[in-house]
Protein 1
Amino acid sequence: MSIDSATVRHIARLARLAVAETELESVRSDLARVLHLFDDLAAANVDNLNPLAHPHDQVLGLRDDVADQPDRSEELLALAPAAQGGYYLVPKVIE
């Protein structure tokens, strides 16, 4: 696809970008290279390729769901200034 200065101005206006007249040629060249890259990617032969969900074959190590720390809730509640029914009591901050 050929890109001219008018196309660059139009794309810049749609993208709400300010492109100075002195930068038009540089932006046009960059856009042309990007489109050429997409053309190359579209032409790549991807037949007989399996899709990859992740580039590495990773397996999550599972462990048994067992508590490995003792229950210290009563001990920690005893440190609070006020507690009731297993909950910390805090002052009301919202009216």
Protein 2
Amino acid sequence: MSTTRRAVLGAALGAALGGFAAATLARRAAAQPWQPERPLRLVVPYAPGGATDLLGRAIAERLGRELGQAVVVENRPGANTIVGTELVARAAPDGHTLLMASGASLVLNPLLYRRLPYDADRDLLALAIMVEAPLVMVVPPRLAASDVAEFVALARRAGDATNYATVGNGNPIQLAAELFRMAAGIDMTGVVYPGSAPALAALVAGDVQVMFDVVLTALPLVREGRLRALAVTTRGRLPALPDVPTVAESGFPGYEAGTWFGVAVPRATPAAAAERLRAALAAVQRDADFAARFDALGLLVQPPRDAAAIAAHLAAERTRWGGVIRARGIALD
């Protein structure tokens, strides 16, 4: 064999071996689950110190353990979650920027605003619904209503003199009250307060007759006897209020209200990264200590759901609240 032919064959063999090695490495890389290359950030579109911030930090700490990288919470409050949500929608889709998503950011805002700087479906991918935040229907103890039926009878006699407390237009507290008003066929007028604390104070004082508040904030007042809980808005009774019936079992089958918090990423995030993050979040949801901590506060940690179940949940939420928002003509721009 000539020197030239040996060189040609050697080059061909080297190229073939090199190609085989490259293909083998590619297959091995593809078989390995995605891992973050640097610390991640979890954008929380709420101010520090609140319940959502507390939840976000608990998720970040446990998620960091699962991924082997720190997860840093970045608070970006403003404009009814729009500021933080837009930031994540426009972030690099590399799996390193996450959103503390909610019913407000992915369901209600698209229904309430004619113009948003993000498209909830096109720009964002929900990976997990971590907790549900149920509401409780509370009244002042001096009100002559010990259950939902008595409240409805009282409201019918009072006509449009019945007022409910809310913390702004288009939020779950207002929408839960409006959904109940429609279901019960009663007249109620919303009175807006600049936050849950002043709204609850007005309710305790008897300035308004009812409020559908987040269990987390109303629970201490119920336990102190300063408010009476008539019903919870969940499908089943709550561990934090086991003796309080649901609105559904109080004469309004199918009634369900509340909000939820989860985690989303930019829609273009690679599938491998999205699935790795989804699996890590599922491990957080299965953490018994995590569940016990937030269940005791009235935030119900949810079992993991796959992509199809999450999409179905979002669709059902949009149908329910879209009907209320259109019927009541609620808009924020």
Protein 3
Amino acid sequence: MDEVGLHGYFPVAPRVHYEVDFESPLFFGQEVYTVVELTRIGTTTMTFTFEVWGEEFRGLPRRRAARGRYVTAHSDRSHRSGAASTPWPEEWITVLREPA
């Protein structure tokens, strides 16, 4: 989010759902490569998918260690609205929908 200028995202976007399938072990000292992709922007939530790859290590080939998805919800930090979540700012949606 910082890369696209949304520096205030993390304090107002708690994860509300998280699921992961673990496919192979990782080891201490092993390098990993992680891919995170925004796959859906809703009115008050965003859904991301991710993969974690373990790089070649001690004779073991590079392989996917985990994959999953998580959902964040926009939160009014003041909690004055009384709602569990509030709509994303329009300017954030515009930035996130711009082609990379």
